[in-house]
Every structure is written in C-alpha cells, then in structure tokens.
Write a structure and sequence with these properties.
Layout lengths: L1 H15 L6 H27 L3 H18 L2 H4 L5 H24 L3
Helix pairs in contact: 2-3, 3-5
Keywords: Membrane, Transmembrane, Transmembrane helix
C-alpha cells in the first residue's frame, strides 16, 4: 500500500511538470545513509561489549557508506577518471566482503 502511494506521488510529479527523482540513485543514497547508521550502531555495540569482531563489521559498514558516497564523486570531481572510480568501487566491494568474512570466522 505504501509503495503504491510512493509510485503515485512520483507519477503525479511527472504529470505536473516536476522532475521525478531517479529511483536507483535515491535507493543508492538511502543505502549509504543506512550503512552509516549501521556503522554507528556497531561502534556503540563494540564499545559496550569489546568484541573485536564488531570492529571488522564496523569497518565493513564504513566502507560501504564510503562506497555509496564515492559513486557520487563523478558529479563532484569530474576530473577523476570513471575507470579509476570503477576500480575503487570494485576493490571496496571485495574488501567489504573480506571484512565480513573475518568477522564471522574470527574467534573472540
């Protein structure tokens, strides 16, 4: 029901002449914000429990938030080559997965 309301509002904006927001970019931005929120939550959890695993999880969430911001840098820094950004995005994706793996496998 709520999803239908959002789609209706977007279609109404396009009818009125307003520019409809780009859904994939909006979702990517929301994912980055959520990753930053999870970074803060996991850091608080580490502070409370002192489990080293949570540092790896926090680093992974931080890199994910950074990755969401980095994909927007093409607009801010047009001089940076697109291939460089793609290589950095691919590398951070691998590192994020490696950090989650270490967090799962690592003993206290």
């Amino acid at each position: 029901m709520m999803f239908e309301n959002i789609l209706f509002a977007i279609s109404r904006m396009a009818e009125v002449g307003g520019e409809a927001p780009d859904l994939p970019e909006s979702l990517d931005f929301a994912t980055g914000i959520f990753a930053a929120f999870l970074l803060v939550v996991s850091l608080f959890a580490y502070k409370r429990t002192k489990m080293k695993r949570l540092l790896f999880v926090s680093a992974a969430f931080g890199l994910y938030a950074f990755r969401a911001i980095l994909s927007r840098l093409e607009i801010i820094l047009p001089t940076m080559e697109a291939t460089t950004i793609i290589i950095i995005l691919s590398s951070t994706g691998f590192v994020i997965l490696a950090l989650f793996f270490v967090a799962i496998v690592k003993k206290n």
